[in-house]
Amino acid sequence: MIVKKIFTQDLQIAKSLINKDEMVTRKYFYQQCYPLFKSIYDNYYTDCANCKEFIDEIYMLVLAPSTQTGRCQMENFRGESTLASWLKAVCLFYCYKKYEKKDNLEKVSSFHTFNEKNASDGDSLFDKYGSSEIDFNRMNRMDVVTLINLMPNERYRKIIYLRYVEHLSNEETAEALGMTMANYYNKHKLAKAQFLSVSRKEAYNG
């Protein structure tokens, strides 16, 4: 009978991360695992501006609750390997899927730009890639800016500010940030997820 080794300490770290323990998150995810994330960032396709942004994306990937199940991906970690090994596998798969979608996103970007100039038929495609609107109609500008400033990712803050406070178009926002439209659609979706996460947290704390 084969007995699997269970990494109990790593299970405890994972539990603390799931419970949003700020000290464990900072020490383990952003400090101890930094060399791992930096190595992957340096050697694989991510479309992130820097390693910090890549770490933020992986954090959201593994710890943001699923809209379908309410559970985050890290809850699948069973301690049958080290948490670092599990994170490495997640990162590599994430980079692989990101690279695989790169050409498709660029094709979608070109197709969508054409549709925006000629018709409004691109709306469903627009929503699919994370470019639907955030409704700020019930909030004043100061409250919106305050929430934006609470977002941990600088580039995401800029996207939300330019798009929804300065009311630039998607194309104008992408151009202002020096981003391709394919990259913009992806980052726009992540930026909105981060903004909504901050908004819900502040509403709960308030």
Question: Which terms would index this structure?
Answer:
68% helix; mainly alpha; 2 domains; 206 residues; 10 helices; single chain; Arc Repressor Mutant, subunit A
3D architecture notes:
The protein folds into two domains: 101 residues, no CATH class; 78 residues, Arc Repressor Mutant, subunit A. Helices cover 68% and strands 0% of the residues. Helix 8 crosses helix 10 and helix 9 packs across helix 10. It is globular and about 55 Å long.
Proportion of residues in extended strands: under 5%
Distance between the termini: 54 Å
Q: Structural class from helices and strands?
A: mainly alpha
The percent of residues in helical segments reads 55-70%
Rg result: 19 Å
SSE diagram, text form:
Layout: H1 8-18, H2 22-32, H3 34-43, H4 51-63, H5 83-118, H6 123-128, H7 141-149, H8 154-165, H9 170-176, H10 181-205
